[in-house]
Amino acid sequence: MPLIKPHKILDIPVIPWKECIAKSLTDGSPGLSVIEHSRNVAEVARSLMAILPRSVQILMGDVAVVLAALHDVGKVSPGFQKKILGNFQARYNPQIAKYTLSNFETRHARISEAALNAFLGAEYETMDISAVVGAHHGVRDGTDTLLDSGSIFGGKEWMQERRKLIVQLLKEYGHINRNSALNIEALTGLVCVADWIGSDESFFPPDQNSLLRLLHYNAFDAWSLQAIAIKSYNLIMSGFPKPVNLHLPKPPDLELLDLF
């Protein structure tokens, strides 16, 4: 499918990827950054992969965790940053506050897909690997292919910030190797479930990142993983699932998080 060139609009000042926000607090102020949320979801995906049957693990090769990490790179974009900051734009990022939100794409999953597609290049098109991050909410946000450098995504400077984030996450979670045997549907299901869990504020409060440290210390254990595995298995295997309430189990004592 030919690339669609968006209409030209004014360039918008860029926000460094390290400063881009993924989650907001109850009052609308900035919470977790994109890189923090990305790591949380990647670690959930790693935990899920560890307890899935070996036959299912094989379907996903060695890319499930890194794809989960990459799912939200599209949040490094002017449209999403303006949307999530809302009334706090002038306070936290005044350089973008004066620009009109309607000029930019706000569907970050769509931007994630375009960014990963551009980064990986044409050789991966037959794998549809970038569509996995594009469908991490359960369905793709459009099937047309947009240029990652397009103005509605912020232009070339914002594209470069997304690439920097992709490079960083690949360093942390591994590279994406060409593998035609990957099951795209299973991968998409896994990334969807990992994101739903990683976005559950009972596990991952938007004002702290202690649960990431907890995961690294291998303490994200039976109280969550066994129930999650049972409830998410069919969702993972169905591919492109519709969002549902997983009724995730809660840890017995959230105060334990303060130990890390």
Question: Short summary of the structure?
Answer:
By secondary structure, the chain is mainly alpha-helical. 47% of the residues lie in helices and 0% in strands.
Description:
This protein has 260 residues and is mainly alpha-helical. The chain has a single domain, classed as Hypothetical protein af1432. Helix content is 47%, strand content 0%. α1 (34-51) crosses α10, α1 runs parallel beside α11 (210-216) and α3 (64-70) runs antiparallel to α9 (156-173). The termini are far apart. Mean pLDDT is 75; it is low at 1-9, 210-223, 229-233 and 239-260.
Radius of gyration: 18 Å
CATH architecture: Orthogonal Bundle
Backbone structural class: mainly alpha
The first-to-last residue Cα distance is 49 Å
Shape estimate: globular
Q: Domains counted in the coordinates: how many?
A: 1
| Broad CATH class | Mainly Alpha
The helix content is 40-55%
Order of helices and strands: HHHHHHHHHHHH
How many helical elements?
Answer: 12
Number of extended strands: 0
Residue stretches low in confidence (pLDDT < 50, at least 5 long) are 1-9, 210-223, 229-233, 239-260
- Give average pLDDT, whole number: 75
Major pleated sheet:
none
* CATH fold-level assignment: Hypothetical protein af1432
The amount of beta strand, in percent, is under 5%
List keywords for this structure.
260 residues; mainly alpha; Hypothetical protein af1432; disordered N terminus; disordered C terminus
Give the secondary structure arrangement, pairings included:
Elements: H1 34-51, H2 54-60, H3 64-70, H4 78-85, H5 89-92, H6 94-97, H7 108-120, H8 130-134, H9 156-173, H10 184-198, H11 210-216, H12 222-238
